[in-house]
Amino acid sequence: MNRKQRYLASAMLLGGVAAALTVGTRSTSAKVGDDGTKSEVKIDNFSFAPGEITVTKGTTVNWVNRDDIPHTVVSDDKTTFKSKPLDTDDKFSYTFSKEGTYTYFCSIHPKMTAKVVVK
Ligand SMILES: [Cu+2]
Questions:
Q1: pTM for the structure as a whole
Q2: Among 10, 55, 56, 108, which residue has the fewest nearby CB atoms (within 10 Å)?
Q3: Is 84 exposed, middle or buried (0-12, 13-18, 19+ CB in 10 A)?
Q4: Ligand 1 centroid distance, CA of 48 (Å)
Q5: Distance (Å, whole) CA 58 – CA 24
Q6: Are residues 12 and 50 in the same domain?
Q7: Residues 6 or more apart from 64 whose CB is under 8 A from it?
Q8: Spacing, Cα 52 to ligand 1 middle (Å)
């Protein structure tokens, strides 16, 4: 390759990296769903973070397990929502269509509790 070809090749490579970064940013910052809102709760170090969130009716809450051991997301009544055991980086989501306070816990580690307030 001559100098000009090498320059073009590296410019194309950089363009590809920039495009990949743009796509990545777009997908991770997608907070707004069809109904207007999405919210994320992380599970890490044996706790839900944030431990309490307030969302509007119709919001889909996504839980993602960032811990290296399995956890579950189970509503206190054990029927409103109940995830399977989530491995590392597994996700669970639930759309809250009614107002109220939803306390939940991890059925594997029942001391892990948190809540979602829907207004
Ligand atoms: Cu757990």
A1: 0.70
A2: 10
A3: exposed
A4: 9
A5: 26
A6: no
A7: 40, 41, 42, 43, 86, 89, 90, 91
A8: 17
One domain for residues 6 and 49? no
pLDDT digits (tens, 9 = 90+) for 17-67: 444 444 444 433 334 444 557 899 999 999 999 999 999 999 999 999 999
CA of 6 to the centre of ligand 1 (A): 53
- Give the structural domain span for 71: 31-118
CA–centroid distance, 44 to ligand 1, in Å, is 9
Distance 43 CA to ligand 1 centre (A): 8
What's the gap in Å between 8 CA and the centre of ligand 1?
51
CATH of the domain at 50: 2.60.40.420
Ligand 1 centroid, distance to 79 Cα (angstroms): 18
Number of folded domains that form the chain = 2
